[in-house]
Amino acid sequence: MTNYINRRKFVSRTALSAAGLFVSGQIMGIPRSANLEDTLSLEYPASPYNLMKDVMKYRKLDSHVHAHLFDGGPEGNVFFADRLGIDKMYISLPAYSGEGTPKEFRSYNDLMLKCMKQYPDRLIGQFTLNAIFQKESMEEIKRCVDLGMVGLKVYTQLKINDPLFYPIIEKMIDLKMVIHMHAYAQLGLGGYRMKYNIGIRPNTSIPEDFVEVAKRYPEAMLQYAHIGGGGDWEYACKLFSKHPNIYVDTSGSNNAENMIDFAVKCLGEDRLFFGSDNCYYQSVGKILASNLTENQKKKVFFDNYNTILKKSGRNVD
Amino acid sequence: MLIDINAYVGHWPFMQLKYNTCDALHERMNKFGVDISVISNLNGIFYKNTQSANEELFEEIRSKVKFRDRFIPFAVINPIYAGWRDDLDVCISKYGFKGVRIYPKYHDFEILDPACIELVKRVRDFGLPVAFNFRMVDSRQRSWIDISNLKNNVIREWNLKNILPIIKAVPDAKYMILNFANAATLNAEELALIKNTDLIFDTSGRTITNMSDFLKNYGSNKFAFGTHSPILDYLTGLLRIESLSPGEADDTIMEMLRSGNAKKILSI
Questions:
Q1: For A134-146, how does the pLDDT look when each residue is reduced to its tens digit (9 = 90+)?
Q2: Half-sphere exposure of A246 (CA within 13 A, CB side)
Q3: Hey, are the CB atoms on A255 and B206 less than 8 Å from each other?
C-alpha cells in the first residue's frame, strides 16, 4: 500500500501546509481506494488567482441599473461602481408602481436628471414613459434627450408589441437609441404556460413579444432586460438566436453558472450588455466565471453597449 | 487559504449543469484558487434512497488520490426514509463524511418533523454540522416539474425565519445555512438565537447585497466563503469577500471569511 506520500513530502508540496493546515486523507475522512489512479501525482493546487485584479482589468458600462428604487440614492450606485470598477452606470427609474401617469414618469426622469447632475462623470440617465399617454410620452422623449439622457427604459404598463408602443419605437429608431424593456419568461406570466397562474403583471413582455416587434422593426434596437432576473434565460436566449436586433442584458440576481456562456452560444458575442439591476456582485461574478475569452469579456462589459451608444453619438471614449 | 463550504457534484434533473463532477470541480478549484470544497451529491435530493447518492460520492472521491485532500464530503440523509439511521452511521463512521445536508422541502417533511429533529441531534452527537438551504434554484426559473413556489403553496422558498425553528429546537447543534435568499429581517430575540448558535452562512446567496452590512448585522464570525457551485457561478460568493475594503474587513476578518470560520465549524 503505497498510496500515501509521507508527511514531509506533503508539507513541501502543498499550499495547504504552507498555510499551516495539514489536511490529510485521514483527517478528511475518506479511506483510500484499492485502485487509486495517479498515486504519485498529488498535484497542487489552487493557482494564486487574484479576483480583484481580474475585476479591475475590465472597463464596464452598466446598461441596466436603477437609482432611488432598490437601495437608495445615487451614492449607493457610485459606491458600488467604485468598488467593482464600473466606469459609468446608465440609471433609470421606470414606473415600477402606480399608474405611470405623465406626472409620475416626468418626476421619475427628473430624479434621474438630478442624479446625473450630482455625478456627471458616472451616471447617465435612461428616460421612462408610458405609451398609453402618447402625446406626453413623445414630448418627454424630446425633453429627456435634450437634457442628455441616452435611451428608453420602460416597465409593464404595455407590452412591447402593443400597437400603442409603435410610435415610440419609431421615434427611438429615428434617435438611433436602444429600447430597454422589463421582460420575463416565467411559468404563469404574460402568456407563458398560464395554467400556472401567479397572478402578476399581465402586461409584462415575454420573449415572443420581443420577437414580434423585432420582425416588424428590424432597424430598432431592443434590449431584453435581465436574463439573470430570475426568468428562464435558456428559453429567452434560444428564442432570440435568429433575431439580430434583440440584445440582452446580463443583469439580475440570478447568477446561474452557465448563463453567460449559454447566451453567447445562442446570440454571439456582440449582443450581450453587462448590467447589474443593482445586483452588483452577481453581475460581475457571473461574467468573470464564464468561459468567455478576454476579448469577449471586454465586449460584454464595455464595447457592446458603447457601440449602441455610438450610433446616437453618446458613446464613451 | 480558501474553503468553499457550499459545493456539489451530481445532476439537476431540469437543467444541464457544468463542472458537476469531482474532476471538473477540482479543475475549477485549481483555476480560481480554492483549496478545499465541502461537497455533497445533488442526486441525493432526487433519489428516494439517498444512500445511493452518498455511495456514489464516496466512490468518486476515493477514485483519485488528488481528490482526497481537496474535498470534504457531506452526506444527504432523508430522515423519513427507511434505514436512515444506519445510513448516517455508515456515512460518518465508515465513509468518513464530515456533515449532513438536509432537504425538507424536496424530501417532503416539515423542518420540525420529529425525524428531522432526531437527525439533527444525532449529527450533533457526532460533533458534526448539519446544513440547510434557503433554496436550491431560483424558483422564478423553475421547471414545471420542480417543487412549486406558487403563492398558496406551502412549499415555497425559505427565508431565515423558516429555518429558525430547528435551530431553536436543537440549539447546541452546528449549522451551515446555505444560499442566503429572501428576507433577512429578524427581531432581537431571533438575532440573538443566530448569534448564540454555532452557525455560519455561506456567501453565495443573493440576499447578501452588501457584504459589509451583513458582517455588521450578524458578525464576522457568521460567514464563510461558499459558491453554491455548480448551480451558481463560481466567483460571486468570493467577490462578496474579496471586494471588501480594509476598513470593512481587516486581514484577520478576511482570513476568517476565506477559511477560518469554515475550519472552526468543520473542526479541521
A1: 999 999 999 999 9
A2: 29
A3: yes
Q: What would the grid cell of residue B176 be?
A: 451551515
Q: How many helices (H) and strands (E) does chain A have?
A: 14, 8
- Judge whether A17 is closer than 8 Å to chain B, CB to CB: no
Q: How far is CA B212 from CA A86, A87, B137, B140, B223, in A?
A: 19, 22, 25, 27, 11
Q: Is the dihedral of CA A168, A173, A174, A176 positive or negative?
A: positive
Q: What is the block-wise mean pLDDT of chain B (268 residues), using blocks of 10 residues?
A: 98 97 98 98 98 98 94 98 98 98 94 98 98 92 79 69 96 98 90 97 97 97 98 98 98 98 97
CA distance A229 to chain B (A): 9
Who among A51, A187, A289 is closest to B142 (CB)?
Answer: A187
Q: Which three cell numbers stand for residue A133?
A: 399617454
Q: Cβ contact (<8 Å) for A286 and B236?
A: yes
The amino acid sitting at A229 is G
- Pick the closest to residue B38 from B82, B7, B14, B66 (CA basis): B7
Q: How far apart are the first and last CA of chain A?
A: 64
Q: Tell me the three cell numbers of residue B128.
A: 458534526
> What distance in Å separates the CA atoms of residue A49 and residue A181, rounded to the nearest whole number?
37
Which among A33, A42, A184 has CB closest to B62? A33
CB A88 within 8 A of CB A63: no
The DSSP code sequence of chain B is: --EEEEEEES-BTTB--SS-SHHHHHHHHHHHT--EEEEEETHHHH-SSHHHHHHHHHHHHHTBHHHHTTEEE-EE--TTSTTHHHHHHIIIIIS----EE--HHHHT--TT-HHHHHHHHHHHHTT-EEEEES-SS-GGG--TTSPP--TT-S-----HHHHHHHHHHSTTSEEEEES--S-----HHHHHHHHHSEEEEES--TT-S-HHHHHHHH-GGGEE----BTTB-SSHHHHHHHT--TTTS-HHHHHIIIIIHHHHHHT-
Q: In what order do the strands lie in the sheet with B129-133?
A: B75-76, B100-101, B129-133, B174-178, B198-202, B223-224
ipTM of the complex: 0.96
Q: By the 8 A CB rule, do B259 and B2 touch?
A: yes
Instruction: List beta partners, residue B73.
Output: B39
Residues whose CB is less than 8 angstroms from the CB of residue B143 and which lie 6 or more positions away in sequence, other chains included: B13, B14, B15
pLDDT tens digits for range A110-123:
999 999 999 999 99
